[in-house]
Amino acid sequence: MSEYQITSFRPEHLVPAIQLFIANYEKERNKVPALASSAEIVERIQPRLAELTAKFPACVAIGNNNTVCGYMAGISGLKNFRGPHDGVYILEWAHASGGTDRINVYALMYEYLAESWVTAGNHVQAISILAHDGELQDYWFRQGFGMEVIDAVLCSKPSRGPEIPGLEIIPAHRPKDVAAWIQMRHELQQSLSAAPVLLSILKAPDVESVMDDPRQQILMAYCHGYPAGYMMARMDADGVAAIIGGPTTFSINGVYLRPQFRNRGIAAALLRRIVEWGEQQGVPRIGVDFESANRPVCRFWQKHFSPVCHSCVRHVDARRVSQEDPNVPPPEEIKEIAGRACRWAEQRLGQTGYRGQCLAFVEDALEQANQLELFGGDTAAESADIYEAGNINAPPPEGSLVFYDWEGLLNGELRNWGHVGLSLADGNVIHAWDKVRIDAFSNIVNLSVPPGSGPLRYRGWVPLQRVLLGMQRR
Ligand SMILES: CC(C)(COP(=O)(O)OP(=O)(O)OC[C@H]1O[C@@H](n2cnc3c(N)ncnc32)[C@H](O)[C@@H]1OP(=O)(O)O)[C@@H](O)C(=O)NCCC(=O)NCCS
What we know:
The protein has 13 helices and 23 strands. It is of the alpha+beta class and about 475 residues long. β10 and β11 form a beta hairpin. It is elongated and about 105 Å long. The two termini are about 45 Å apart. The structure holds coenzyme A. Coenzyme A binds next to α5, β12, α7 and α8. Coenzyme A (COA) binds next to α5, β12, α7 and α8.
């Protein structure tokens, strides 16, 4: 038995959960001192975690002495999430675990939640991880997740380089700036849709909503009057990880230099101007997020910014999500097979030819009425073992095979031969005992048995779906 109990997240788990996250966050902050203080983070994420865990499936791992050793929660049912399907996203503050056994705790929590996410139709699963937690990243990579996005925070302002001849940097405000920006934004989308980034081209935000937003700054770079590129930043850190974001953080939400103007220091000059603008506004932090597959962009940003979050994504096979098992017939066909087998069996009521051959009777009903060949044991007891007969707390549904233990003498041999019948509607079973007969499944244990043998004991039932596994059509 596991030494952890995985259960649903409850309000009393909130404070210990935040403490677990903050312990990990402090380790990240030791590597990246530009990150906000723990007190600021607690204030920002505690209400959000309370809301998230009240609204969506969430779990905790409870260890010895009733301590919270881990927690996990995801926003599920996100439409068109990194593809045409629904998805679930576990934010960087919506999971944590502590101690030397933390990866084991993560494995138990993921197992607990992932099944319900997939059952609810979430094809895509994404998680953001603190960037310096290599051990945890390795765990998620082994679960089939791959890195897609890096969130980073500014650590060093670009130094002033040599003068770039003919360069002019101005905020976009004239109609010709807007026209050039629209054109270059389109070029950027095209370049991100090409290999190796391969992003889909999404509908771009409405031009007026961007230009008229007082929180948005767009800087244009002109070279000898020719539009060379742009960089844009926003005042509320929308889009970057919550541990960077906040109302007083800038996020850089776009950069593009036309290919012929690259490698001259123009993007660095644009960044320097954005940083100076932030300094004038008293902004303590600047964040950015970018695709990890975009190598030139990663190289540029990582010169001045430190990664603090890696967002990783897993695409679950759509065939798994739709729950269709190609190895068993569809439910409608199973119902028809059961119906034909029951009718075949009922036509033989009262016959004595199957006495002592209960398994042959059930198999013949299924096989002859449906032109099938099945794979089972040599005796009813063997078949019950192979199919793992059970479900004793629920009555057998129509078409299921109902099993009993029966130890007796057959063909001169005394052993548990077992007994089996085919379930009809209303808990009745058709089976071959002294003759082919119908009895309530619970009454079969009261049937009289041959002298010298033990009583019939109810073993449970097996759905027809399981019995049909691997069947051959004749
Ligand atoms: C990433 C990008 C913005 C960089 O723009 P850039 O103007 O070329 O950047 P810089 O010139 O400041 O720096 C790039 C390199 O040129 C070098 N450089 C700067 N001035 C130079 C000069 N005068 N001579 C030679 N090299 C120079 C820099 O040192 C840097 O080199 P490094 O990568 O070896 O360190 C640009 O490649 C681009 O637009 N890419 C596509 C946009 C995109 O994908 N955006 C996604 C948004 S996240």
